[in-house]
């Protein structure tokens, strides 16, 4: 996904085009790894020194809720990346060092679901953490 496509999707849903949202997308586009919210904020503040943390977080969550960004917790901190191009339901292996991701094209819940007879699963999140080949 590129920045213009993301902005167009937001406009189609009634959201205004803002420079802060555009800058967040520019920071994340073409990256194959998650970036810490703290790093995104530092980079945004270089262009918009007076923008509040609340505004940046609100935009990060909006972009996540509109399925333009993916979010994960890594080392107790929120990290974000552009929604990956994988078709359909999938999961990721996330490198603990650099945040690079590897797509897992199947869902382990298919196995787990069989073991949870009598339970109703509403949603799930499954991520594997480890080291990528470059960080090993």
UniProtKB/TrEMBL annotation:
The keyword Nuclease does not apply. One of its GO terms (cellular component) is cytoplasm. GO terms for biological process: negative regulation of DNA-templated transcription; regulation of secondary metabolite biosynthetic process. Signal peptide: none annotated. Gene3D superfamilies: 3.30.1490.190, Winged helix-like DNA-binding domain superfamily/Winged helix DNA-binding domain. It is found in: Cytoplasm. Its cofactor is Zn(2+); Mn(2+); Fe(2+). It holds the Pfam family FUR. The keyword RNA-binding does not apply. SUPFAM superfamilies: Winged helix' DNA-binding domain (SSF46785). One of its GO terms (molecular function) is DNA-binding transcription factor activity. Keywords: Cytoplasm, DNA-binding, Iron, Metal-binding, Repressor, Transcription, Transcription regulation, Zinc. Binds 1 zinc ion per subunit. Binds 1 Mn(2+) or Fe(2+) ion per subunit. Zn(2+) binds at residues 95, 98, 132, 135. Fe cation binds at residues 89, 124. Belongs to the Fur family. This is Fur family transcriptional regulator.
């Amino acid at each position: 996904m590129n920045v213009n496509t993301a902005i167009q999707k937001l406009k189609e849903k009634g959201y205004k085009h803002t420079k802060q949202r555009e800058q967040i997308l520019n920071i994340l586009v073409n990256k194959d790894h998650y970036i810490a919210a703290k790093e995104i904020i530092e980079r945004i503040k270089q262009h918009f020194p007076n923008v509040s943390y609340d505004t940046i977080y609100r935009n990060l969550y909006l972009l996540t809720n509109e399925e333009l960004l993916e979010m994960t917790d890594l080392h107790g901190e929120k990290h974000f990346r552009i929604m990956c191009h994988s078709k359909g339901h999938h999961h990721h292996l996330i490198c603990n060092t650099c945040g690079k991701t590897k797509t897992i094209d199947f869902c382990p819940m298919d196995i787990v679901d069989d073991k949870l007879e009598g339970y109703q699963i509403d949603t799930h999140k499954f991520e594997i953490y480890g080291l990528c080949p470059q960080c090993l």
